[in-house]
Amino acid sequence: MTTRFSCLLCAALLGLSHCKKKEVTPDDQLPPATQTGQNTAGCCVDGIPWAARVEGLFGPTPISAQWLKSLTTGKKQLSLLFNKAIYDKSHVHAGTSLYFFVPDLRSAGTFVLDQPANPQLASSNPAYGKFTFGKPAPDQVLLTGPQATGRLVITRFDSARRVVAGTFEFTAREAAGTATVQVSEGRFDCQF
Predict the structure, then answer these.
(1) What is the mean pLDDT of each run of 10 residues along the chain (192 residues)?
(2) pTM of the model
(3) Which of 65, 23, 30, 26 minimizes the C-alpha distance to 51?
(4) Residues near 157 by Cβ (< 8 Å), separated by ≥ 6?
(5) CB 103 within 8 A of CB 126
(6) Domain parsing of the chain, residue ranges
(7) Which domain of life is it from (predicted)?
């Protein structure tokens, strides 16, 4: 019985010695929480640091922030898109993106992300957040809503200098499934 216990203990220790926490590269570290238009964004996705970045010349931009008047509602809408497109396709977040929509942004404040949203209906949505896994195809889209809530806090909104900055956290859920993603410690600092 002691021999069996010793063998099991050795096997467990050998297995644990092969477990290695993935090191965070400098490119994946969270950017500092600034408010000066640095065009940075980052967060933790299911506990793993995630930073907006794109490798290569041809691809999406890492940061896109727009504050535009809606043709249907006449209100100024904020759209934030943060992309991560990197060469290392084995990385769990190699082809992912974060998106936020605020239907009527007039000043800094807190926006609760707890209403159902349909990204296909561009301007008639409430404030919402979205996380997209771009691999494997087709895209896996997870949204905030009544069962997956969060918040977007805009700490600086300067329409004259065209800077928007803030923090965010949310849980997003797949519309037709059970998959979820937990986004925490989010921060962004963008020019629009």
Answers:
(1) 40 36 65 96 96 82 92 90 87 91 96 93 86 85 96 97 98 92 98 94
(2) 0.83
(3) 30
(4) 105, 107, 108, 163, 164
(5) yes
(6) 29-191
(7) Bacteria
